[in-house]
Amino acid sequence: MFHRYASGNWVEKAIVGVVVSLLCTAPSHASGGVAMFKGQIIRVQLAYVLSDPGHKIQYQLDNQKMPTAFVAQNVVVVGVLDRSSGTIHVDDIVRDLPAEVRQAKSVAIVCDACPRGMAKAKKTALGQMLDWNRFTLLSDPQKADLVMLLSANPYLGDFTTRDGLDKRPVSVDTTYMNVIDPHTGANLWGDNRQEGAWLVPSATRDLIRAFREQLEMEESPVEQQSFVERHLVHRPLSLVGRSQGK
Asked: Is 81 helix (H, G, I), strand (E, B) or coil?
C-alpha cells in the first residue's frame, strides 16, 4: 500500500529498511511508515548520504545539517523512506553502538562531578543495572569491560589521562551519562537530560533506559519499535495525516 508524503511523492507504508545485524530481516517501523536504517554517513558530491556497503545501497538524506556530526561514523537513522527517490525523510540520527559495547560482560558505575542532588545518580544507576541484570557490576573500573560515567558536566574524553575527579565548576542542571572504554577513555555511547537537581533520579533512569533500548533493539522487535518511537519528530498534523494516507 502506498501513501503520499508531504513532498507529494508516493511512499510505501510498509517500507523495507536497511537493518544490519538484526535477528530478523523485516524492517522495524512504527506508525506512518517510520523505520530504522543502519549504515555509515559519508559525503558524495557535496551531499551527505547513508551508505550500506554490505548491501551496496546509498540513501539520500533530506536533512543535510544533522549528518555533519556523524561523518564516517556508523549510525542508526530513524525516518521515512521515499522509495521513488531513494531519500530518507530524517527524524533523528544516533551513533550506532560499537561491537565492544555489545560484547561487554561487566561494567563499573562511576559518578564524577556529582555534588548535592547529583549524588543520587549513582544509587539510582546501581538499582537500574541490578534490575536489568545484563552486566556483572564491578567496583574497579580498570577491571570492567565498560565504565558508566555519570556527571553534571559533559565528558571531555579524558577519563584515563586526568589526575583524579573532574575539578570543573558544577551546576546540577543537566545529567550526563557516557559509556566509555576504561582503558582508552573512548566515548562509546553518550546522552544527557536537562532536568535539574531535583529530577536527577528520573533523568538517570531515562538515560539507562535509552542505553538499554539501543543495546537490546537488535534482540527484540518490541525494543526496536520503542527505539524508533523515541526518536520520532513531532510532525505537524497535516504531515502526519499525509504520511498515513489520510
From this structure: strand
